[in-house]
Prior knowledge:
Elements: H1 3-14, H2 17-26, E1 31-32, H3 33-37, H4 44-56, E2 60-65, E3 68-73, H5 75-111
Antiparallel strand pairs: 1-3, 2-3
Amino acid sequence: MNQSAAVDAVFLALSNPTRRKVLERLSVGPATVSELAARFDMQLPSFVQHLSVLEESRLVRSTKEGRVRTYEIAPKRLKVAEDWLTTRRQSWESRLDRFDQYVKQLKEKESGS
């Protein structure tokens, strides 16, 4: 998965409140599908679809032991979103710093100093 596709997949996964709540729960520790699903008022197939989106984005990974599938968070993939946001934030901070400097220069020019 290239970087752009990874960013798209991560933000798609994070765009849904159910999936964000699953990630919040998994940040505490691994959980089985039934443990995760118990917190949500939806049919299991719909819930499993959310888990699939999270797994396809590689924000979570699962293991299966017998009939029990357990999910855990894959924190490395969250760095994709963090890096993307950091780059955007740095760009805007740089622009705002230049704008601030420009306004200061205009004020100094108006005051004659």
